[in-house]
Amino acid sequence: MRKLNLIVVFNKDLSKTLFCIRAKEPYKGLYNFVGGKAEQGETKEEAAYRECKEELGVEIESLKYVPYQINSDEIVDISHENLDRVYQYRIPEHLSALVFVGVQVYIPFGKGNRKIKGYVIGINNKVNFDISKIKDIDSLVDKSLAIENRLIVLASFIKQNFGGTMNEALKVVMPIKNSIKAVEKKTVSLLINREKLEELIEFNIKKHNLARVRLLECFRDGVDGVSINYEYLTKTKKISLAVLRYFEEEGIIDIKAQTMYRNPINLSSIPKSKEIVLNEEQSYIVSSFYDDYINDIRKTYLLHGITGSGKTCVYIKMIKRVIGMGKKVIVLIPEIALTYQTVNRFYSEFGDRISIMNSRLSSGERYDQYLRARNGEIDIMIGPRSALFTPFDNLGLIIIDEEHESSYKSDTSCKYHAREVAIKRA
């Protein structure tokens, strides 16, 4: 009977399933063994030997045990052809709930275990090489944003069709790289009635707690039921955080924080648009598109028309039909054509359910628009080619205005054409 050297992966108490994962051909592969069913007088290790023998019909010369583990596939943050492949790392137990596909992590790399960044592109329990050489993920990259799973697939398409490395492609599909501190508006509300408020003021006056009195008097002098701005209390009235925390812990006040998005467009200055009336030819285009759409026919359309021919009116009507079905829309416009008037045209139709993404926005504004899209708080994203990677969950339509423009071709280290990538994403 043939003898084999095997590695068996086991769970912590050896009570459930054992896997034989490494052996020479023809036995190389994954086999299931039911562990923990030791016969009388037999140890669990002896049971594993016996089950391997019965299952494979072989004798075991040596048996190596390693703990059952979950591994992650990584693309390292180094753009070099020789390193452009998947590396496997073990997910340590304390990070098991934090590591998922798309997250950025620090990993020990090379013989010197130099700590570098990598992107997790897969999680599994399969081992593709010597399990004893697999290293642990070191930690998560602070404030980094995870890449959406579907965008990782898009990055792979870019690499395969336009060249470059997977690392470069992953960076392309990330319109926002890092999280930025949110802008919050805090308000403070009183939770007790007027009678108890007066009692508290009198009590704290006697105790010479003047800072507490100053806060309570703000509520006494205000209107019942109206919250007071947090910044007004801390900056104008000089109320300390310690005083606010004390009253909050005592159940006397309630502090609420509301995230305020940095909106690059002043909606109050945009007048409501007039109802769009399409001509016969425009109506035919919209109707043909919609008939295909409701019948689940998905294809690419080319809309030809000179400047001023009403292409934008057709776009708007198409968009209304699509978002009326609960879908999201991306509208690509060349950066040079992304003017205030162009954006206002869309805002006047769709209000705050629309956003923009371009190079003129501050990092905070870009991050907030990314969050609004990911959280489903907008239906339409307008921008140059980078807007193509907006993290919409239910994307229904991509419009590329002035598709012939050269700006849709990326000339960075990772070259791609937005038209081809848009077709793939759609």
Describe the 3D structure.
- The protein is α/β, with parallel strands linked by helices and 426 residues long.
- Helices cover 31% and strands 22% of the residues.
- It contains twelve helices and 17 strands.
- The protein has helices at 44-56, 149-162, 166-172, 194-206, 210-221, 230-236, 241-249, 280-294, 311-323, 340-350, 363-374, 418-425; strands spanning 3-10, 17-22, 31-34, 59-67, 71-76, 87-90, 104-109, 114-124, 135-136, 139-140, 183-190, 228-229, 253-260, 328-332, 354-356, 380-383, 395-400.
- Helix 4 runs antiparallel to helix 5 (210-221).
- The chain is flat.
Rg, rounded, reads 31 Å
User: Any idea what the shape is?
Assistant: flat
Strand order of the largest sheet: 9-6-5-8-7-10
How far do the termini sit from each other? 57 Å
Number of helices: 12
- The helix content is 25-40%
Kindly name the structural category.
alpha/beta
Q: Write the element-wise H/E pattern from the N-terminal end onward.
A: EEEHEEEEEEEHHEHHEHHEHHEHEHEEH
What share of residues are in beta strands? 15-25%
The profile of the biggest β sheet is: 6 strands, mixed
**How many β-strand runs?**
17
Residue-averaged pLDDT, rounded?
A: 78
Residue ranges: pLDDT <50 for 5 or more in a row? 9-36
